[in-house]
Amino acid sequence: METNNRINFYARRDLGDRLSVTFRFIREHWKILLKYAALLALPFALIQGYFMFSVTDMTSIYTNDVPGMLFSVGGYLLVHLSCMVVMSAFAASLLKAYDEGRLSPAAKWKDFTHFMPFVGRTLTMVVVLIGLCVAAVIAIIILAMLPTVGLVLSMLVLFGGFIAILPPLTLVFYPLYFEGMREGRAFKKGFALGWKNWGTTFVMMLVLSILVSTISYVFAIPTYVWSFATMFGYQFDPFAGYQYVASFLASFGSYVMQPVLFIGMAFHYFACREKAEQVSVQASVANFENL
């Protein structure tokens, strides 16, 4: 139940209700969400425009510029990961500000007091996840070297394992933000909630990803025009800057839309936690006892 026309984070909601409350939150706060998401995404997109153009530029492949390609791919991944950390922390601080009654159309950046702490905690969890991914890849390589297993079976195991654990992994950040847990406990609790609700987590993640990707593709239209034109032999003036502008727009649109995905998965996490722990009931009992 919603009281005082405010969204209660912890409430029993089915999948449709989770999507509805996500869209309601975004509809009510789209101006401030878009304003600060755009400001945060801008510097990353400006840098990413260069790396994205370099990665998609086929001339480096034709000239066998392997160091240049490695530099571009590495830069692209680093900037992309950094922006994801910042956008996740921003979306979480936005939800915290709302929960604490500090979010309004006139809210200033100083009202997002949780932003910098969340950046640090998000970065720490990302490092943990990268370490786990590296360990998994090493294990698959060792497995592939065994004569009784082989490369094909190892790749199937890797792909199947990735599909199985991806939905639960999307929830490991939320206990960091909304329960104040340390990284180890947050990972354990978030993964357990995601695993128990694997089906709904997968569907929620899929629907939101399709929505975000579809809107992001609008910003990437200039990139597709450029790609199709070069496929048919048309060469843009390298000094006109069209390729860079197209790459910048594609990156900017993708980054600005990321908080939508995070907010939607946050409401999914709240519903999963309510189902498992009855948080709203416990809060009501605590409030009654304090009267």
Description:
The chain is mainly alpha-helical and 291 residues long. The chain has a domain at 15-113 and 199-289. Helix content is 79%, strand content 0%. α1 packs antiparallel against α3 and α1 runs antiparallel to α10 (242-277). The longest helix has 42 residues, at 15-56.
Low-confidence stretches: none
Our measurement of the CA-to-CA distance between the termini, rounded to an integer number of angstroms, reads: 21 Å
Q: How many DSSP-defined strands?
A: 0
Fraction of residues in H or I helices:
over 70%
Q: Would you tell me the overall average pLDDT?
A: 84
Work out the strand percent. Answer: under 5%
What gyration radius follows from the Cα positions, in whole Å?
A: 22 Å
Elements, N to C (H/E): HHHHHHHHHHH
Report the structural category: mainly alpha
The 3D shape can be described as globular
- Largest sheet geometry: none
Q: Number of DSSP helices?
A: 11
What attributes characterize this protein structure?
291 residues, mainly alpha, 11 helices, 79% helix, globular
Short description:
This protein has 291 residues and is an all-alpha fold. Helices cover 79% and strands 0% of the residues. The chain contains eleven helices and no strands.
Itemize the secondary structure elements and their pairings.
Blueprint: H1 15-56, H2 59-62, H3 66-99, H4 115-145, H5 151-169, H6 174-178, H7 183-196, H8 198-219, H9 221-231, H10 242-277, H11 279-289
